[in-house]
Amino acid sequence: MEHALDATAVVPAWIEKQEHNGIVYLLDAATPAIDRYDLNAEQVLPSISLASLTATPTDLAVDDSGIYLAVGQSVLRMGHDGLGQSVFLTTTGSVRDIAVLPDILAVTHSSHPNQQRTFVTYSTAPGNAGVMLDQASRYMEKLEASGSVVYGPSVGLSPSDIFGQKIEPDGSINSQRFDSPFHGDLPPSLGAKLSPDESLVFDYNGVVYAAADLSYVNALGGEFDDITFTASLPVLLRDDALVLYDSDFVETGYFHYSNPVSHISAANGKLFGFSRQLFGAPVSVVVTPVAAINQPAPLAPAVDAQAVTYKPDQIVLSADRSMLYLLDRESQNIFRWSVDHGVYQPPIRLRGATREMAYDAPNNDLYLV
């Protein structure tokens, strides 16, 4: 299913996507405009014209109080429909990034893109809106905010690391920030996206971190273009394809778009691919039900081999003769018996029926058919 948005003759991809209360906001810095889409109604909403701007917008943030737009040395605020545009604050440098926390707007500005940023917090609360709360110097960009922490890659440092900056409820910038303990060992940070429960940070370089301390959790096989979540599980956009993962970060589904897509969102068991084509083609929203994407069977429940009576359908001994692999087709588990210690190790859970397993001794790998 596709929905067409109005488009100018030649336009680049959107530079920022935000979602709030089921509405997707896409910042087109060239036109300039904010394109909008209602995920629940599956309906294109009127674009918000930014034709009156005197500088190119650089970032977008949305919360209950409205839309915030970084433009030159100012941040504008407007209603969710674009009405009531006004200057919310003005800084001494060019505004680089903005992010919203409860009743707080985090802003970074600098006179040069690669310089250390001035990190400032402002109140967005009624009766106190626009009041500066605190400021500090920070090497951070591409801000992503949780309820009390702002995440972002470093700027002016090589290789780029990912940082977390604690923000107190009164807007005070905590003097201690934290970063990944793997600086230099993992790919440079490209920006961050939080999981729905804010427990994980997904870096656009493909690395997954724990939000609490930026410790390493897993990796998703390289860089990706965008990320969304369905049933709290990550879905990546990578090279015009959707890649679905389970809670163990194992790939479970793949869907390739027939045309280029730059951003994705998810709602109501569906995935939405947003594309803005060049050469005058209309901007489209491709709606794909998650159920229509081929996905493998779920992992079988783990079974305690000592708690059941079973007859192995196949037995394989590891090359070093330290481990027996015992295939049980009924439970869809491969039980593992440690020859050295005389005990069962945790089983290998299978997806669907397995007829046979083969063992690659040189690489210590099991193959299933």
Write up this protein.
This protein is mainly β and 369 residues long. Helix content is 0%, strand content 51%. The protein has strands at 2-5, 16-20, 23-28, 33-38, 43-49, 57-63, 66-71, 74-78, 86-90, 94-101, 104-110, 117-123, 132-138, 144-145, 149-153, 162-167, 173-179, 192-194, 200-203, 207-210, 216-219, 226-230, 233-238, 241-245, 251-256, 263-267, 270-276, 283-289, 314-317, 323-328, 333-338, 343-349, 357-360, 365-368. The strands form nine sheets. The protein has a four-stranded antiparallel β-sheet, with no helix packed on it. Strands 2-3-4-5 form a four-stranded antiparallel β-sheet, with no helix packed on it. The chain has a four-stranded antiparallel β-sheet with strand order 6-7-8-9, with no helix packed on it. Strand 12 and strand 13 form a beta hairpin. It is elongated. Mean pLDDT is 90; it is low at 2-11.
Attribute tags:
369 residues, mainly beta, single chain, 0% helix, four-stranded antiparallel β-sheet, 34 strands, 51% strand
Briefly summarize what is shown.
It contains no helices and 34 strands. It has 369 residues and is mainly β. The strands form nine sheets. A four-stranded antiparallel sheet has the order 1-28-27-26, with no helix packed on it. A four-stranded antiparallel sheet has the order 2-3-4-5, with no helix packed on it.
Number of helices: 0
Helical fraction equals under 10%
Gross geometry: elongated
Q: Give the N-to-C terminal Cα separation.
A: 36 Å
Low-confidence stretches: 2-11
Oligomeric state of the chains present here? single chain
Find the count of extended strands (DSSP E, 2+ residues). Answer: 34
Structural class: mainly beta
Largest sheet composition:
4 strands, antiparallel
Strand proportion:
over 45%
Task: Report the C-alpha radius of gyration, rounded.
Answer: 25 Å
